[in-house]
Amino acid sequence: MNKKLKIFLISLIIIILLSVIIITTLKLLKNNQNNEETSSYSATAVTIMKELNLYDEINNKAYSKTIEVLLENNNLEPQYLDEYYQINYTNITNFSTIINNLLAKNYNSDEINYITKNMIDDINILLSMNYIDILAFKDISNFDINNIDRYLNYQEENKDYDLATVVTYVNIGLDKEGYSEYTEYTEEEAQNDLTILVNKYHKLPDDYEPNDLVALSYNSNYYLRKEAADAFERLTNAGVLEGVIFYPFSPYRSYKTQEVLYNRYVARDGVKAADTYSARPGFSEHQLGLAVDVRSSNLPDNLTPEHYEWMLNNSYKYGFIVRYPKGCQHITQFIEEPWHLRYLGVELATKVHDSGLTYDEYYDLYIKETQD
């Protein structure tokens, strides 16, 4: 082979090789361009996909806004990729960081979707704790995330209670000693709210006295607030028509009067016993001017069983409830007092009666929620 032919053949081979390289490169560039053009993800997200060697795996599946945001924030954790597809994107601050923290605590996608939709304002509480079964609380209307530790501790100590009962009892305060922690109302709240709850966890101002007290017709030294007094007259008249004769014997009591009574009981029976049947000063419904103790005409300080049943079945029609019914001491924190009536107004008293709940329970479930 002569020299010229050899040079020609070598040149031809080089040209062919260069052509192949150029054509291949152009095809690769075109493919990449086409891929990027057909991707539903942003250019930033595509770049991160490629850096993580996840381009094909992600781009060949349905678009996910959650994954796009994670990629754009460079927060995508490959081990959670399958879970990401099940998590709904929510436009909240630090979305990608939050869901990664929740996933790290073993929350699943259903739980995370619930949390980001309903509990984002309290997310730091959940993030500060170990995993909890948050969906167990989702249908409990009076659930308060701020009490979550108390719920869990109380449930551990009271395994026979279902979770809804645990939530209500803790919200009432039953996981704590009575009077150890309490909310104190203002005089304005006490005067303007006939539904106000007074118990061992809700206190009235020491100097509170209703400004609309009126004397009862039975005894000019017995007082109730005007609306309650009028309703009580109707209640007693209804009883007379049915042969149920009862009288008031302890309506409105001032802070000072309650203090004298309570101290007398403590001196006689001791603090522990007195606390089961007498409220401490400031914690008595009698100071509201909306409570009255009644007695059957033939008893000094109680109702007969028959009159008690009549009161349970009729007092609500006139706006009163039996505040401390039988079998509820574990909730009300007071022994049963068939004689103690509390005025709420006909509408609310009827609802409480029909619910079968104590007022402590009803207040937490329905009234407190509405006020909040």
Strand content: 5-15%
N-to-C CA distance: 101 Å
Strand adjacency order, main sheet: 5-6-8-7
Q: Would you identify the regions where 5 or more consecutive residues have pLDDT less than 50?
A: none
Short description:
The mean pLDDT is 93. The chain is built from 18 helices and eight strands.
Describe the structure using short key phrases.
alpha+beta, four-stranded antiparallel β-sheet, rod-shaped, 372 residues, Muramoyl-pentapeptide Carboxypeptidase, domain 2
Any overview of this molecule?
The structure is a single chain. This protein has 372 residues and is α+β, with helices and mostly antiparallel strands. Helices cover 51% and strands 10% of the residues. It folds into 2 domains: 24-120, no CATH class; 183-371, 2-Layer Sandwich (Muramoyl-pentapeptide Carboxypeptidase, domain 2), CATH 3.30.1380.10. α2 packs across α4 (65-72) and α13 packs across α14 (271-277).
Walk me through the topology:
Elements: H1 3-38, H2 43-51, H3 55-59, H4 65-72, H5 81-84, H6 95-104, H7 109-118, H8 123-127, H9 148-157, H10 163-172, E1 183-184, H11 187-192, E2 202-203, E3 213-216, E4 219-225, H12 226-241, E5 246-250, H13 255-269, H14 271-277, E6 291-296, H15 305-314, E7 320-324, H16 329-332, E8 337-343, H17 346-355, H18 359-371
Parallel strand pairs: 1-2
Antiparallel strand pairs: 3-4, 5-6, 6-8, 7-8
Helix pairs in contact: 2-4, 9-10, 10-18, 13-14
